[in-house]
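User: Here's a structure from my thesis project, written as structure tokens. My advisor, Dr. K., wants to see whether a designed sequence matches the one we expressed. Can you design one independently, without my sequence as a hint?
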């Protein structure tokens, strides 16, 4: 192990052991070196949540359900006891205390935990102009408040497109300021690999380190990595996930299509062993985005796969 790797793990043991990290399911010690090529062994325990984007067609297009219905739907239709909201489905309600109280009450009434809110459309946290960056910080603060009102542990932000592995100064300034606000409300600020530099693990991890705050972490998404025109990943997604997991405060189980009960393009067992080796035991959020199954079918297929792998023995393919 290199000296830098040793220092990184020492930092993580101390900085992520605090209350915010533990609330989101990050362990204070690490079970193994996190590698994209995990050794054989048992896949550990984790909780399952439902990401609201899995039902975006029902919410946006057919309007079969509303945002207020989401906790009930998760519980009664899918047997899932935790939800991850997307702000697009209640964009004008961040400051509506009565609405948020109603939503929280509905979740509580159905025994559903509100995990996080995914935030889109609130400005570029890496904008070149400082006033634009700081306006984006201000725009996000209301969602920190909303997340606190709902009992969430985090908001997921988009980090913007104006940074790189060697230049994260501007993005770090804004993300750091937002994280300081989040820490006051016990809300983590987390970054998903969600396109642009955020889907480059070199750039995203450079940003995490530059901010250097325990309330700022990652939301590794199994599938949001660059692809070529044929739909093949252009980077090693397993290595990328492994590199993101030591900073993870949430995990997004992206799924597209299935064959014989397995996700067609991703080795879920391998990924979940990577998750286990990182010491993570929090929520793994189902986020179905496929086109062959209906949304209900895709959610159920993803849940069945996650349940079947939890506690199973992973064996690397030859």
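Assistant: Designed independently from the structure alone:
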């Amino acid at each position: 192990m290199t000296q830098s790797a040793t220092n990184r793990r020492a930092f993580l043991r101390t900085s992520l052991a605090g209350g915010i990290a533990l609330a989101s399911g990050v362990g204070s010690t690490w079970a193994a070196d996190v590698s994209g090529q995990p050794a054989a062994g048992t896949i550990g325990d984790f909780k399952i949540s439902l990401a609201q984007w899995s039902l975006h067609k029902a919410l946006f297009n057919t309007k079969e359900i509303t945002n207020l219905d989401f906790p009930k739907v998760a519980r009664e239709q899918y047997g899932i006891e935790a939800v991850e909201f997307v702000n697009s489905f209640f964009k004008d309600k961040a400051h509506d205390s009565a609405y948020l109280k109603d939503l929280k009450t509905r979740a509580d009434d159905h025994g559903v935990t509100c995990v996080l809110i995914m935030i889109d459309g609130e400005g570029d946290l890496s904008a070149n102009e400082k006033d634009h960056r700081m306006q984006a910080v201000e725009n996000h603060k209301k969602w920190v408040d909303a997340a606190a009102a709902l009992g969430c542990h985090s908001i997921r932000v988009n980090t913007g497109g104006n940074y790189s592995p060697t230049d994260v100064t501007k993005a770090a300034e804004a993300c750091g300021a937002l994280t300081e606000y989040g820490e006051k409300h016990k809300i983590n600020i987390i970054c998903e690999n969600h396109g642009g530099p955020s889907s480059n693990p070199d750039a995203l991890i450079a940003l995490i380190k530059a901010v250097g705050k325990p309330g700022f972490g990652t939301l590794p998404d199994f599938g949001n990595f660059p692809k070529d025109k044929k739909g093949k990943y252009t980077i090693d997604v397993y290595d990328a996930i492994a590199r993101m997991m030591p900073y993870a405060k949430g995990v997004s189980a992206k799924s597209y299509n299935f064959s014989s009960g397995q996700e067609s393009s991703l080795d879920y067992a391998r990924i979940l062993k990577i998750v286990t080796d990182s010491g993570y035991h929090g929520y793994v959020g189902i986020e179905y985005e496929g086109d062959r199954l209906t949304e209900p079918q895709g959610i159920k297929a993803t849940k069945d796969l996650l349940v079947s792998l939890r506690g199973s023995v992973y064996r690397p393919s030859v």
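When you compare it with your expressed construct, this may help: Residues 54 and 288 are 5 Å apart (CA to CA).
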